[in-house]
Amino acid sequence: MSHPFFKDLDLKGILNKEVVPSFIPKVPDMEQLRANANVVSFKDLQETAIPNPKKELVNQKMNDFEIFGDFN
């Protein structure tokens, strides 16, 4: 945070949720996003940064991750 880029940043105000954002994106509801998105599920992903010993555990619990929804 000592970099000059952040010199005008009101960190305390941000942490206290007192800073008004300069831009708030308009996002349609989640159902509309999912209906119009090219959906990728966790099961479609092949590359991982998970260490080999943990991959088996993740594979056993893969369905538990689906509660987070699909993403692209």
Characteristic key phrases:
35% helix; mainly alpha; flat; 72 residues
Q: What would your notes on this structure say?
A:
The relative contact order is 0.13. The chain has one domain. The protein is built from four helices and no strands. The protein is flat, with a radius of gyration of 19 Å. The mean pLDDT is 75. It is mainly α. The longest helix has 9 residues, at 52-60. Helix content is 35%, strand content 0%.
Please specify the SSE layout and strand pairing:
Blueprint lengths: L10 H5 L14 H7 L15 H9 L1 H4 L7
Alpha-carbon distance between the termini?
A: 32 Å
Strands, count: 0
Shape: flat
Largest sheet: none
Helix percentage range: 25-40%
Mean pLDDT equals 75
Q: Give the H and E element order.
A: HHHH
The class by helix and strand makeup works out as mainly alpha
Low-confidence stretches: none
What is Rg? 19 Å
Number of domains: 1
Number of helices: 4
What share of the residues does DSSP label as strand, in percent? under 5%
Question: Can you summarize this structure?
Answer:
This protein is mainly α and 72 residues long.
